[in-house]
Design brief:
The complex is a heterodimer of chains A (131) and B (163). With 131 residues, chain A is an all-alpha fold. Helix content of chain A is 77%, strand content 0%. Chain A is built from four helices and no strands. Chain B has 163 residues and is mainly alpha-helical. Chain B starts with a helix and ends with a helix. The chains are: A mainly alpha (131), B mainly alpha (163).
Chain lengths: 131, 163
C-alpha cells in the first residue's frame, strides 16, 4: 500500500517535470534558452520514472534491479556532452565572438580559434619547452 | 609486474561492478566474465590516458556528489518555475566567463559537466588556452553572483579533490 503510493508519487513527479520541460521548448524565445529546458527539467522527469521502477521491482516483484542505477549514471555522463555539442553548434552558426564576454586571456574562445592559429601556437609552445 | 597486468586497478573494479549491474544478476560466471573484461579493457585503453590525475580524498568526492545531486533537484524546480511562471520579458539570459583556477583537464571536464547539470546554467565553450569557461545562464539578473557561486561551490571543492 505504502509502496504503491510512493511509486505513484514518483510517476506523477516525473510526468509533471517531463511536461514542463517540453512546454519550455515551446515557450522560451531563443535556442540557447531552449537548451536549458530539456537538459534540466527532464533530469528529474527521467529520474522519477527510474526511482518508481526500482521501487516497483523491490517491493512488488521482490527482486532488486540495478539497471535503473546504470541508466542514471549513463544519463549523467551523456547529458552534459549533448548540451555542450548543441551549444557549440549554436555558437558557430548564430553568434559572433563580439557578442560574448572576453576570455580574460590572449587567446579567444576555442570555437573561434582557427586550426592554423592553434597549430602555430602549439608548435611555438613545443619549441620553447624543447629549447 | 602487477602494474603491467592491471594498469588501472580501480577501473578494473568499476568494470566488474558495472558488468554485474548490467546483467542484473551476481553469479560466478558473471563475475569471471566481468573480471576478464576488467583486465582486457584497461590494457587496451591505457595508451589513451598517459598522465591520469591523482584523486586526493574519497570523503570529498562523496561530499561533492551529494552536493551536486541536491543541486540538480533544486535546479529542476527552479528551471520549472522560470518556465511556468516568468514571462519571457522578465527573464534575463546572460553569457558569463568564468576564469578557472583549475588546471587539470579532467577537473575542468567535471566542472563543465556539473555546470550543465545544475541551476539554469549550460557550459558552452572553453577558451583556447584552457583558462576560462563560457557559461550561458537562463535567468541571471546578477551574472557576477552566479560566477562567484560556481567558483565557491564547485570549483573550490574540485580543486581539493584533484590538485
Amino acid at each position: 500500500m505504502l509502496a504503491e503510493i510512493a511509486i505513484s508519487a514518483c510517476l506523477v513527479i516525473s510526468g509533471v517535470f517531463g511536461l514542463v520541460g517540453s512546454f519550455g521548448l515551446i515557450k522560451l524565445p531563443d535556442p540557447m534558452m531552449r537548451l536549458h529546458a530539456p537538459t534540466k527539467a527532464t533530469t528529474l522527469g527521467v529520474g522519477g520514472a527510474l526511482i518508481a521502477s526500482m521501487l516497483y521491482f523491490y517491493f512488488i516483484v521482490g527482486q532488486f534491479s540495478f539497471h535503473e542505477l546504470m541508466i542514471t549514471l549513463f544519463l549523467f555522463l551523456t547529458a552534459p556532452i549533448t548540451g555542450h555539442f548543441i551549444a557549440k553548434t549554436h555558437l558557430h552558426l548564430l553568434h559572433k565572438p563580439e557578442d560574448l564576454p572576453p576570455t580574460g586571456g590572449a587567446r579567444p574562445w576555442a570555437s573561434y580559434e582557427s586550426d592554423a592559429e592553434r597549430a602555430r601556437i602549439e608548435a611555438e609552445a613545443e619549441g620553447e619547452t624543447g629549447a | 609486474m602487477l602494474h603491467k597486468i592491471l594498469p588501472h586497478p580501480l577501473l578494473t573494479l568499476l568494470l566488474i561492478v558495472v558488468w554485474q549491474m548490467l546483467v542484473n544478476k551476481v553469479t560466478v560466471g558473471n563475475l569471471v566474465l566481468g573480471a576478464i573484461l576488467g583486465v582486457i579493457i584497461p590494457l587496451i585503453t591505457s595508451p589513451y590516458w598517459p598522465n591520469r590525475p591523482k584523486l586526493r580524498s574519497w570523503p570529498r568526492i562523496v561530499e561533492y556528489v551529494l552536493v551536486v545531486l541536491w543541486d540538480i533537484c533544486v535546479a529542476n524546480v527552479q528551471v520549472a518555475w522560470v518556465i511556468l511562471f516568468k514571462s519571457n520579458a522578465n527573464t534575463h539570459p546572460a553569457w558569463i566567463a568564468i576564469p578557472l583556477d583549475l588546471r587539470t583537464p579532467e577537473a575542468i571536464t567535471v566542472l563543465a559537466g556539473t555546470i550543465t547539470m545544475t541551476p539554469g546554467t549550460v557550459s558552452s565553450d572553453v577558451s583556447a588556452d584552457g583558462r576560462s569557461l563560457l557559461v550561458h545562464c537562463l535567468d541571471a539578473p546578477d551574472p557576477d553572483a552566479v560566477r562567484d557561486e560556481i567558483k565557491a561551490r564547485y570549483e573550490a571543492r574540485l580543486k581539493e579533490i584533484f590538485e
